[in-house]
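Re: your question about NLP/P60 family protein

S., sorry for the slow reply, the queue was backed up all week. Below is exactly what I fed in.
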Amino acid sequence: MIKKIVASVTVCLVIMAFMPFSALAVSRYEVLQIGDRDQEKESWVEDLQQKLYDAGYLKVKPTGYFGTDTQNAVVQFQTENGGLVVDGKAGPMTRKAVLGDSYADIDSSRQVASSGASAPADDSAAQPSTSVSGDALNPGDKGDSVSSLQQRLKDLEYYEYSSITGYYGPVTTEAVNKFQRTNNLNVTGIMDAASLQLLNSDKAKYYTMYPGDSGDDIKAMQDRLNQLGYFDTTSTGYFGSITASAVKSFQDANGLSVDGVVGKNTRGVLYSDDAKKGSSPSSGDSSSSSSSSSSSSSSSSGNSNVDRMIEVGNTQLGKPYSYGSSGPNSYDCSGFVYYCLKNTGVATSRLSSAGYSKVSSWETIKDVNSLQPGDLVYFKSDTSSSVSHIGIYLGGGSMLHCAPSTNGVGTSSMSSGYYARNFLGAKRVF
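Result:
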């Protein structure tokens, strides 16, 4: 009998020795998950957030509260770093991978959130609404600093509300988004240090809409061009070659400089009662009427498939990130690309980001300076050389993609930071 017991125990120990750490039971206090909040003199959540923030996974500043922003950042980290269970929870293995040398076991006395407790849905909601960082302004902030921000944005024609409120709400966030887009910054809606520095300099540009831009303001501009008879296709919110052609026609008819860019002067006339109506609205990608101007555009700007794919993608802006999803209500990065390709008429299977990077029938582009709108751009992570992310290049150093860092489908700059240093290449489908 004793021999049997010893043998059974030995077998169990051998099995456990070969089991992955994640398969072994861990106590709840060892796992950081949604709803958790650091208590006084604790910094378990904040330390995790700081590392994720520094690595580019978390886009809001550390708060000590584990909300959906942190959960999405953890999911992205787990996805891009092999060997981790992708569950959005930071157990010992995930914490070790994130924290590295600064890892420490969580004390068993840590208080954890009750499963039935009510908590803010996102990390920013847990921040005091009156707190204003010295090097950044965030949605929810209040005070004189926000008033100064609004006034400067109003001077540059980004802030359209009639009064200065001193509250960083949706109107201010939209103004910041437009400022960042016009000035080729990462579009986050957060007035970070780099954005503030540029805003307060003489290099800050007046509100301008460029080909390759996307957003509600682009859709409103298309609607206005349609109303005036220059644009007879569906308004998509993406500034493609069809829209550029309509803008040039409008500029020509109204005695403006014909450059296809909607700046201060063009916008002023476009939304005025003096705007002249067109006689032949733009209905395609033909550039024959402006050959000298169109010759300087990228070789893919006249490609209707590229415009169509980007337009499809832009109709999904704001849809949430969900690992393994392919739409239409949520996506992960490769699922979003698959949705756009499928709805542009491209016959392809649902592949991973690495899978799309290996499609031999598509041209491979290795030089970031050779990218054209519509190219599928793919990336590695800071900790792995394998392809782990993919998006659609828009032009101007930006891409359309789906990631936790953009709160789902959104745009990001590839000109600097995480995506610049981790760019691997691109595939040209069209």
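The longest strand covers residues 384-395. Residues 2-18 form the longest helix (17 residues).

Happy to talk it through on Thursday.
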